[in-house]
Amino acid sequence: MSPASLVVPQRAPMRRLNSVDATTENVRIGGPTVVVPPKHLMAPSDAHEVAAAFEIARHELESFRSATSSPSSPPLETLITDKFAFAFDIDGVLIRGGKVIPEAIEAMKQLNGENRYGIKIPYIFVTNGGGKTEQERCIQLSQQLRMEVSPGQFICGHTPMREMAETFKTVLVVGGEGEKCREVAEGYGFKDVVTPGDIIKDNQDTTPFRKLTSEEHKNSRLRNFAEVEIEAIFVFADSRDWASDQQIILDLLMSKNGRLGTRSETFEDGPPVFFSHNDVVWSASHDLTRIGMGALRVSLEAMFKAVTGKDLKTTAFGKPQMGTFQFATRLLQQWRNDTHGINSPPDTVYFVGDTPESDIRGTNEFDNEAENNWYSILVRTGVFQEGTVPRFVPRATVDTVLQAVEHGIEREYRNALKKRAISANTTPAIEE
Ligand code: G3P
Ligand code: MG
User: Fold this and answer.
1) pLDDT score at 181
2) Ligand 1 atom nearest 358 alpha carbon
C-alpha cells in the first residue's frame, strides 16, 4: 500500500463566528462555519451538532462528494434521531415582518432536545425569500432565534440559480435592496452581472419616471449597452420599483438577442426569464397578505401579451417546484449518511409552512414521488387565514410552529409504540 493511501482525508475545522459582528464575507470565506449568539460563544450549545453537521453535508454536496461515498467517521454516540426531520418555511412560520414569531424560540428548543423524550431532531430552513446570500440569512436568523445556525441549513428560492452561472455569461439581475442581488449573483459565480441601475445610468430615458438616487448612481456601473448582449434575466428578489423594472425586462424580452435598443420582428428572440419563486402573496408585517414576486410574474406575462400579442413563457424556482424538495432530500440524505452511516434520507420529513400554494402543495406533491414520507403541516401565523379553505390540503393544521413541532414529535412517538406492539405480537412465543 502506498503511503498516500494511508492518509485519512481531514475536514476543515468548523469555525464559530459571533452573530453580532459576523459579516457575509467572513462567513462565506474560510470553510465550514456556524454563526453563534454571543452567550453561546464560550462553548457549543444544544443546537451546535445539528448546525455543524448540515454545514459539512452542504459543503460535501457542493464539492460533489455525494452521499454514495462512505460515511466520514459518524459520532459514536448521538442523541440526534435519524428517523425524522423538520423543514421550516421562514416568513409566516418563524418570522413575520422582520420579527420573530414568539413560539418559534420554544419550538427550536424542543428540536434541540428540550422535549419530554430528550431526543434531538434535525432541521433545515427552506424559504422562497431572497435578495440576501445564504450567509446573510444565516446571521440574521441566528440573531432572531438566538441560537446557533449554519448557512448549510438554508435553501433559498434562488439557491438553484447558482447552477446556471456556467450557462449564461451576461445576465440582468432584478430585485432586492441596492446592490445586494448583484452580490448574491456574483457569489453564485455569474461572471457579468447587470442591474437595472446600470441600464438607467447608461440611458436615463429608459425609465421616464425613475431617476437614480446619488447612491444608486454611484454604485451603478457605466457601460455601453448598445454593445452588450444580455443572455438571461433573473428576478432574485421582490422588485423595489415595478414600473421601471418591468419596462427594462419588457425591452429585453422584445429585443433581438438581449441587445437593448433593438426590436425583434417576431418577439421571439429575447432572453429567458427566471424567477426565484412564484408566491403571488406572502406574509409581511401588515395584517393582510402583501403581493410578492409571483404577482410580478403574472403582471409581466399579461403585459407581454398585451404589447406583443404573444404568450410569454417564464420559469420559477423555489417551492412548490420539485427541484427544491429534491435538493432538500439530497441535503438530508448527505447529513444522515455523515452522521448515522445510513445512505437514505430520514423516513419522514415534517414540512411546516404557512402558504398552501407553495409549502403545502410542494410537500404533498413531493410526497407522492419521494421514497420517504413528506408530511405537510400548515400554521395559522401567516398567509393561511382561518375560515378559508386552502386549495392544497395539509396533513395537519395547527396554530403555531410550536404546535407543529409537538405534533410531529408526538406522531413519531405513537408510531414507534405501534411498531413495537406489532412486532411484539408477531414474535413467536418462546417455548419453555
Ligand atoms: O418573498 C418571500 C416570500 O414570498 C416567502 O418566504 O419563507 O415564506 O418561503 P417564505
Ligand atoms: Mg411562508
Assistant:
1) 95
2) 9
